[in-house]
Write a structure and sequence with these properties.
By secondary structure, this protein is α/β, with parallel strands linked by helices. About 50% of the residues lie in helices and about 15% in strands. Bound molecules: phosphoenolpyruvate (PEP) and magnesium ion (MG).
Length: about 575
């Protein structure tokens, strides 16, 4: 019988297909006593299982598509290395002999012991390895239990054309899955502006998060429909429902084809004001999508994705090569490279080994802890490698540098003096860079938004990061679906902070843009235009829709309505005005 599960739609689109359930849980095992004579056989069985696991992982690695980011391979390499580590390959053998028990039980005991050690670790990188151990152990246990059919197939075969259902996914998992051709994903946890959700949008995969307990209702291979527009997952759909959604899929395709015609139109409002519309990217590979929609600039290049799923941070050359690929792909357009913003939910995905906090402190609130610029200022050599690479690449194109999470002038002064140091070092070594490269700040901490006038004399531009600005202003974790209902871009405090930042920049005629998800959301584009925003940086997937709205907007009327929005406080009043704003008909 058909049924529906309701979550939060975080990436638009409709997908119809079979579910592939990702089970991060360790397989249940029991203990058996073995006779002394059978121990050798048990050890051989265990070694054989390790070998099959190694072959499976190597096969998955060989099947990674050529255009997948390097971190996908690094992720699998980590699991391969773990299989070889004596803690997983030797200690269980000792346990088999000592306890005269079955291989599954020995492996489980060793896994529990390792997990306990990881749980006690303060270092978030090392404690995030716990999940890797559990995944590797689960693979070997499944082989020992004879479940070879699923893992033995290549990852590509498993995921291609599937709708992935998991408790949660890391941003790196999401990327890996997209490269295996999944149709959509649905998770039991997560929030609208978690990085995984942002990634799903920029990859153009329909996605739903916050589908609590979905895995108890669905099994491997069940037919489902994912409606990313409304956050609804429909299980066991009947012919009538299937036909309805197939029609909607066709309509959506037609709508997208219509938008594609706007690709080369200049971006300006209906009453003739030019607007800057750039794109956000995470990987050099995203330039394909950027080209497809015709964007001639990158308003946000989130470089942290270079750091995911690897043990060591990227070196200067790796940074440089990645940035140069983007510069070469854009030929002449502006590229805004943001320095590392690891921490909070982005650390969940195994971030490279950077010192993250004092060993005697606990990171209870990662979003308020050593994140982004704070983390960089604790890891100067790694930060300098990135600064050098950005400066070097500025010799090859129109590159700007953007700093995340700055909340005080002291931090900014420290970064500026580091940049100066790097400039001197490059000059000394006769390495080219653009001495006039623009430096900008993310407005994403309320402290920055209320004091932009104090920061502006030191920088060339600002970019509003609403994902964090909303999280920090309204005191709600952007990844926590239990408070997602409070995540409100239209909250008067948020709108006033945005307006203050725009006005402060206009006053000193320095450019200000918005690269947070609010800019990509069709519901808010006209309001933002009315508030005075003239530069947007959006997901490639949202690019043409945002462009269409801009082309059909009349600024004079919008600014009057937007100033009214700033003066009202109730949800009902805001909704009435938003209705007027979004239904404005342009002659
Ligand atoms: C933001 O906070 O709005 C932003 C663009 O940065 P990120 O989503 O990477 O934190
Ligand atoms: Mg941010």
């Amino acid at each position: 019988m058909s049924f529906s599960l309701h979550g939060i739609g975080v990436s638009k689109g409709i997908a119809i297909g079979k579910v592939y359930v990702i089970d991060h849980d360790v397989v249940e095992v029991s203990e058996f006593s073995l006779s002394k004579q059978s121990l050798e056989d048990e050890v051989s069985r265990f070694k054989e299982a390790l070998e099959i696991a190694r072959q499976q992982l190597s096969r998955i690695r060989d099947n990674i598509p050529k255009n997948a980011p390097g971190d996908v391979a690094a992720f699998i390499d980590t699991h391969l290395l773990m299989l070889e580590d004596s803690s997983l390959s030797q200690v269980p053998i000792q346990i088999i002999y000592e306890k005269q028990c079955n291989a599954e039980w020995a492996l489980k005991l060793q896994c529990d012991a390792l997990v306990q050690i990881f749980d006690r670790m303060d270092d978030p990188y090392l404690s995030s390895r716990k999940q890797d151990v559990e995944h590797v152990v689960a693979r070997v246990l499944r082989i020992l239990r004879g479940y070879t059919e699923l893992p033995a197939a290549s990852m590509g075969e498993l995921l291609s054309g599937a709708i992935v259902l998991a408790d949660d996914l890391s941003p790196a998992d999401t990327v890996m899955m997209q490269h295996h051709g999944i149709l959509a994903f649905a998770t039991e946890f997560g929030g609208t502006t978690s990085h995984t959700a942002i990634l799903a949008r920029s990859l153009g995969i329909p996605a739903i998060v916050g589908l609590h307990k979905a895995r108890t209702y669905l099994q491997q291979g069940d037919m489902v429909i994912v409606d990313g527009f409304h956050g609804v997952l429909l299980g066991d759909p009947d012919e009538f429902i299937l036909n309805y959604y197939r029609t909607r899929q066709r309509e959506e395709k037609r709508y997208r084809a219509g938008l594609a015609k706007l690709k080369s139109a200049p971006v300006a409002t209906a009453d003739g004001t030019p607007i800057i519309l750039h794109a956000n990217i995470e990987f050099p590979e995203d330039m394909v999508a950027v080209k497809r929609v015709g964007s001639n600039g990158i308003g946000l290049y989130r470089t942290e994705f270079l750091f995911l799923h690897r043990r060591e941070p990227p070196n200067e050359e790796e940074h440089f090569e990645a940035y140069l690929r983007v510069v070469n792909a854009l030929k002449g357009g502006t590229i805004t490279i943001r320095t590392l913003d690891l921490g909070a939910d982005k650390q969940g995905a195994d971030f490279a080994k950077l010192e993250s906090h004092h060993s005697d402190s606990h990171m209870n609130n990662p979003a308020l802890s050593l994140r982004a610029i704070r983390l960089c200022l604790r890891n100067i050599p790694e930060f300098k490698a990135q600064l050098r690479a950005i400066l070097r690449v500025s010799a090859f194109g129109n590159v700007r540098m953007l700093l995340p999470m700055i909340s005080s002038l002291q931090e900014l002064t420290q970064v500026i003096s580091l940049i100066e140091q790097v400039r001197q070092e490059l000059s000394k070594d006769a390495i080219k860079f653009d001495p006039n490269m623009s430096l900008g700040l993310m407005v994403e901490v309320p402290a920055m938004a209320v004091c932009t006038d104090l920061f502006l004399p030191h920088v060339d531009f600002l970019s509003i990061g609403t994902n964090d600005l909303i999280q920090y202003t309204l005191a709600i974790d952007r990844c926590d679906d239990s408070v997602n209902y409070l995540y409100d871009p239209l909250h008067p405090a948020v709108l006033r902070l945005i307006k203050m930042s725009i006005d402060a920049s206009n006053k000193v005629t320095k450019p200000i843009s918005m690269c947070g998800e609010m800019a990509s959301d069709s519901r808010y584009v006209r309001l933002l235009l009315g508030l005075g925003l003239r530069s947007f940086s959006v997901n490639p997937e949202a690019y043409l829709e945002v462009k269409q709205i801009i082309l059909n907007s009349n600024l004079a009327a919008l600014s009057k309505l937007a100033s009214k929005v700033l003066k009202v406080g109730t949800q009902a009043d805001i909704n009435t005005l938003m209705q007027q704003i979004n239904t404005q008909v342009v002659a």
